[in-house]
Each structure stands twice: as C-alpha cells, then as structure tokens.
Write a structure and sequence with these properties.
Shape: globular
Strand content: 25-35%
Strand order of the largest sheet: 8-7-6-3-2-1-16-17
Number of helices: 13
Structural class: alpha/beta
CATH architecture of the largest domain: 4-Layer Sandwich
CATH superfamily of the largest domain: Ribonuclease Z/Hydroxyacylglutathione hydrolase-like
Number of strands: 27
Largest sheet: 8 strands, mixed
Helix content: 10-25%
Number of domains: 2
Oligomer: single chain
Radius of gyration: 25 Å
Mean pLDDT: 94
CATH class of the largest domain: Alpha Beta
Distance between the termini: 18 Å
CATH topology of the largest domain: Metallo-beta-lactamase, Chain A
Low-confidence stretches: 484-492
C-alpha cells in the first residue's frame, strides 16, 4: 500500500487494486481564504493520476473544498457521511454515484476492504480503515475516537500496520470566546493514551497541516499547542516498541508499506511538491498574542454600503427578531437580565450598540453600557459577509474576526448567582444560525466553481457499480456491450 501526502488531510491511497482520493483540497488559499496548507506546497493538477474512489470524511472546509471537487472527474464513486448538504452540493457539481457510509459501514473493492470508523464528534464524520494483502492502514482524519471504537476496530483488524493519527488538541476558537489558552494537558493525554491502546506498527501525525494567513495569521500562536516534533517524541516515550517507525509526512512525501516493512520516500510524489517548510510561525506562544480587532476589508467592500446594511440590521431587524423570539430563544436572556453590547469594527471607525433584555421593549441603543454583561465584537466586513451570505462564521469566528465573552450573574444577600452550566447563547449567532449560513455560502460556491471547472481534469468513464449488501458496499463491474453476464458478475 502507498500513501501519497497531498497536504493536511488530503491524501491519495494506492492499494493492491484501487486508487482512492481522500478529502481533496488542491488549491491555496482555502477555507474562505483564511488558511493555507503548511508546509507550503504546489499541486500539479494536470498530473493528478486517475482514481476510482473519492472519499469525503466530513463537511468542514479544510476537507470539503468546492473548488477542488468541481475540478475533479464526476464519474467516480463517492463515499460520504449521511449529510444532505454534501450530497446536494456533489449532485449540483455533476457527481451521481454517491453512497452514504455510517458508523462501521464496510466497503469491498476487489481485494481491498474499507471500514468507516465512528467519531464521537457527530458532524457527521468518520475515519477510514484500509486493508489489503500488504497490511492495514487507519486514517483517523479529525475523528474523536472512543475506547469502544478502538476495541471494535481491533476486533476486526487486530494488527494496525500504519496509523495516521489524530494528534493536535487544537484551540481553534478559545481566544475568540474568552476560553482558556493554557496547554490542554488532559485532552493531549487522551490522544497519546489512544495511540498506546491501538499499538500500530508505524504512525504519522495526520491532518492539522495548515496555517492561518493574512489578517488571521496571529491565530498561529494560539491554535496549535503541540509541534509535530513534540508529538513524535512523545509517542516514542509512550510507546517505545514503535522504534523508528514514526514518520512526519510533508506534502509530496510517499509512505509505502508491505508485510510490516515501511519506506518513507521524501519529495517523491509526481503531482505534489513541497515548496518550503514555513512552519516557523506555528510556535505556540499564547502570552505574545497581539490581536486588536482590525478590519482590513480584504474584499474592498464599499464602506457606505456596509454601514447602511449593518445599521439596518442592528437598528431594525435585530430588535424585531429579539422581540418576536423573546418567549422562546431569549427566555433565559430575559430571566438573567442580559445586557448585550455589540461592537462593529469598521476599517476607520467603530460603532457600539446595546440591547437590554430586562426591558419590556428591546431596542438598539447607541453607545456603551457600563452594566453590559454579554459582549460581542465583529469586523464590519465579516458582519457584511454574513448578512449577504458571501462568507460564513468559519471566516468570522474561525478567522479571528469575531470575539465574544460574558460575565452574567446576579448579586444577592446570599451571594452571587450565575447561570453555571445553563447555555445562554450569543444573540448574533441565533439570528444567523451557523448551519444556515454555511449551507447558503456552499451553494454559492457550487454555482461559482461549477461554471469555472466545466471539464475538470478529463472525464473517464466508470465501469463499476456499487451495490449494498447488508452493511457492506460491494463494487462490481458493469455489463458492457458484448460481455456475458457471467463475466460481468465477477468482482473487480
């Protein structure tokens, strides 16, 4: 088996009789323009080899890239989690042979066997086990793996030859939401413990090969608490039997294995080249964050248009939304007398408004309120993106263009009372639900890139058919003109 590292979570797997592309992200920047693959790479698109199976593990933008999917041939079999958005976007792009995988679904591709592994993060998403006569490879992708899942996988595949491991306890939006930036000892300990339980013959840190760019680059100091080198060293300490079979795969590298023997071919992939190792800015240093919220308006939106649209939303639409949902979405905001202060940061000025949920009539009031207890700051261009469904919360919140924190409590003569575990949600996110915005933006991307990549990389006809047999998908040959039924029924 051979694994070609395209970059981050994008890999190309060659088994004994199948070629499989997983989570293709073939251009930088990606993720609504806030991320690049790191180390820096170049994908030589015209040299991408033919493949007969495409796997998408989940809908997050560093795994589900509309531009890349628009470019690829539409005749391949596609495996996805049970996610209506993924299927709808793929069909709009021209894909037709789409199949759902559920927890522990299996796929038979001739002598190649696949199994979808469960994630406790129910995006939905899955990891994938690949097995052929050369050995067993488990790609965990972004999945959160439970002890029960490890037990089940080991019951089916007692010996894992190669593990592409979940390894980075990311602190993606901790700063933006006023959460802890301390090193996540407990979360990281669990990741290392699971490596010891799986006990692979070889391992590499998987995914998390990205860096934030442009106005989001300050996040690199606080999102990635573990370096790749530290993880590899820690694995040796936790699991000394693994010896030297720990590989840090860069874009353009190939890892090949057969019968427990491993070869790491650095920079040997014909369709991906590492340009430079630019990981120096990823050093975790939360005490050095300089992150004053600044709107550099990268899309050059008209300031007058932004101001008009945002003022209409804040002064008219938001109060109407709050009042209409006062007895449902905002019942706890009212009970805890939330005073919500919203700051909108424009390129050359800022506007502040507050909304008092303790009042009978909730209206937008200009200026700060010294009694405010729920605070949100957002750049004007990010707010405008959300209003117009151009970019979503991944760009605003994940890109560091948004901040929120709260200090909600009531002082009594018996002490301070606070909501504790009660979730009092951020009002702006209730007005513009994440999934609604996410889906709107994805469909716009489909319309854009479907027209740009009409022909893609060259269409080749699929001669296979995937059939459900219980919990297993089996790939069979289609009947061709002049071919007998007996021949056509042979497994590929």
């Amino acid at each position: 088996m051979k694994i070609h590292m395209i970059g981050h979570a994008s890999i190309f797997v060659e088994t004994q009789d199948s070629k499989i592309l997983i989570d293709p992200v073939l251009w930088d920047s990606h993720g609504e323009g806030i991320e690049d693959v790191c180390p820096k790479r170049e994908v030589i698109h015209e040299q991408l080899p033919e493949f007969d199976l495409l796997i998408i593990s989940h809908r997050h933008l560093d795994h589900f890239d509309i531009r890349s999917l628009a470019y690829l041939p539409k005749t391949v079999d596609v495996l996805i989690p049970k996610d209506q958005l993924l299927e709808s976007c793929l069909r709009k792009l021209g894909y037709s042979q789409i199949y759902y995988l559920r927890d522990f679904s299996e796929v038979q591709l001739g002598s190649t066997r696949l199994m979808a592994t469960r994630s406790e993060n129910r995006v939905p998403e899955y990891g994938i086990v690949f097995a052929d006569e050369s050995g067993v490879f488990w790609n965990q992708v972004d999945t959160i793996v439970s002890l029960d899942t490890i037990r089940f996988v080991k019951s089916r595949y007692p010996n894992i030859d190669f593990l592409l491991a979940a390894w980075q306890p990311m602190l993606e939006i901790n700063y933006q939401n006023n959460y802890s930036l301390s090193f996540p000892y407990s979360q990281y300990n669990e990741l290392l413990e699971k490596v010891g339980l799986i006990r692979p013959k070889a391992i590499a840190p998987g995914a998390n090969g990205v860096k934030f760019i442009n106005g989001s680059s300050w996040l690199n100091q606080i999102v990635f608490p573990v370096s790749r080198e530290q993880f590899c060293k820690d694995v040796r300490m936790v699991f000394p039997e693994i010896g030297e079979n720990i590989f840090a795969l860069d874009p353009g590298d190939i890892l090949a294995f057969k019968n427990g023997e491993f070869c790491h071919f650095q920079e040997m992939c014909q369709f991906v080249k590492k340009v430079e190792d630019n990981r120096d800015s990823l050093d975790f240093s939360p005490v050095k964050v300089e992150s004053k919220l600044v709107d550099d308006n990268p899309e050059n939106y008209s300031l007058d248009e932004m101001k008009e649209a945002i003022n209409e939303e804040v002064c008219l639409n938001l109060p109407k939304f709050f009042m209409e949902n006062k007895a449902s979405l905002f019942i706890e905001h009212c009970r805890w007398q939330v005073i919500y202060q919203l700051e909108v940061v424009f390129p050359n000025f800022y506007s502040i408004f507050y909304f008092d949920f303790s009042k009978e009539n909730i209206q937008a009031r200009p200026g700060r309120n010294p009694l405010a207890n729920f605070f949100t700051s957002i750049t004007a261009s990010s707010f405008y993106n959300i209003l117009k469904r151009i970019k979503g919360w991944d760009y605003a919140q994940g890109g560091g263009n948004y901040r929120s924190f709260k200090k909600i409590y009531v002082a009594t003569n018996h002490g301070i009372l606070n909501p504790k575990e009660l979730k009092i949600e951020e009002p702006l996110s209730l007005r513009f639900p994440y999934n609604d915005i996410f889906e709107s933006v994805r469909y716009k991307e489909v319309d854009k890139w479907a027209q740009t990549h009409v022909n893609g990389v060259g269409l080749y006809e699929s001669n296979t058919l995937m059939m459900n047999m219980g919990n297993t998908l089996v790939r069979r040959k289609k009947i061709k003109n002049g071919e007998s039924n007996s021949n056509a029924n042979n497994y590929k």
